[in-house]
Automatic annotation (TrEMBL):
It holds the Pfam family NEPRO_N. Coiled coil: none annotated. PANTHER family: NUCLEOLUS AND NEURAL PROGENITOR PROTEIN. This is CG14174. Residues 7-191 form the Nucleolus and neural progenitor protein-like N-terminal domain. It comes from Drosophila busckii (Fruit fly).
Length: 343
């Protein structure tokens, strides 16, 4: 019970940092390397994201402190925020940096030097225990809050807010497990060096009935991994709707038919008419009379079938005007050129 109260002491008194001359400082190199490696891990991206998410938890709690104050899950969030604040007040990084600064600069088995006392080293170990158990409390509060608010989320209550809150709690739980494992690794490596530090009989930090745990357990962190399956993927065959148009197209493709020899159409015989037959005005008048009858009786087979009715009437009118004006030669030439261009 005394062990539990020691690491959970809120106002734990720090022993004075005193250094004593020792003849063997070789083990201090191992202590320095282990502490320095742990401090490098605290400056990583995971630790920074943990601090940012912890600040987000505090803002979310303050936003809903009136509407959620009666919910058991919200009380778990308040306990989580209190544990995060206490973790910030613990300031393990500062304690490790102070102890690392008290170690000798040059360490060797045959070299003497000044080393911190065992009380200062035990104080660091107790702080590591406090950090480890605070992380355990943080994870328990995360599970309690997520279990309660998960039920509310399934009931479609406060969807947007609870989604953000549960995501933040999940991040805190994940990073807390990682930090607890790093702390346990550091504690397990530092504890065997405890007996090598010099001890002052009048200044003992740990009580006689207090014993430090011999080892801290590692926490299993489950990381989601994608399972690679070698099975062939199953393709679903969707039924397609076949319309009448599709059926007609398929039938047209299938029905090739039979090859039929087709003869090219015979060229239409042009009416045998020579423009040179129109020599005199009488020939033109006779041509106009015969052609007018042919256009009425058989318009498709007449000589001037390409002429429209108004063109044929205009040609006749122009010819008659020139004849009345006693311009016979001119009337003959104009009519012949017009008929020759149209036939």
């Amino acid at each position: 019970m005394a062990n539990f109260c020691l690491w959970n002491e809120f106002e734990l008194k720090k022993p004075p940092l005193v250094t004593i001359q020792v003849s063997d400082t070789g083990f201090a190199k191992h202590v320095f390397v282990v502490i320095n490696r742990y401090l490098q891990q605290l400056s990583g991206a995971d630790f920074v994201e943990f601090e940012q998410t912890a600040a987000l938890i505090g803002r979310l709690m303050a936003r809903r402190k009136n509407s959620f104050r009666g919910f058991p899950g919200f009380r778990a969030v308040c306990k989580l925020n209190a544990a995060l604040c206490r973790l910030l007040r613990l300031d393990l990084t500062r304690e490790l940096q102070h102890f690392r600064g008290a170690l000798p600069d040059v360490c060797d088995n045959d070299m003497a030097g000044e080393m911190p006392t065992r009380s200062s080293f035990e104080y660091v170990l107790v702080r590591l225990l406090s950090f480890y158990h605070l992380q355990e409390r943080i994870r328990n509060c995360c599970l309690a809050a997520a279990r309660y608010f998960g039920q509310m989320l399934r009931g479609n209550f406060f969807m947007e807010f609870l989604t953000v809150l549960i995501a933040a709690i999940a991040k805190i739980h994940k990073f807390s497990a990682l930090q607890a494992n790093n702390c346990a690794t550091l504690y397990n490596k530092l504890l065997p060096q405890r007996a090598r530090f010099p001890q002052v009989e009048k200044h003992q930090f740990l009580p006689e009935n207090c014993k430090l745990p011999t080892q801290l357990a590692q926490i299993k962190v489950i990381t989601p991994t994608k399972e690679i399956t070698t099975e062939t993927p199953i393709t679903l065959q969707t039924s397609t709707v076949v319309t009448k148009v599709d059926k007609a197209k398929r039938k047209a493709k299938e029905d090739v038919g039979t090859v039929v020899e087709r003869k090219p159409p015979a060229a239409a015989e042009k009416p045998a008419f020579e423009i040179n037959t129109l020599v005199t005005l009488c020939d033109v008048k006779h041509f106009i009379q015969s052609e007018s009858k042919a256009r009425k009786n058989s318009p498709d087979s007449c000589i001037t079938k390409s002429l429209k009715n108004h063109e044929w009437l205009a040609a006749q009118t122009l010819f008659e005007r020139k004849v009345k004006a006693r311009e016979g030669d001119k009337a003959l030439n104009i009519f012949r050129k017009f008929i020759a261009s149209k036939i």
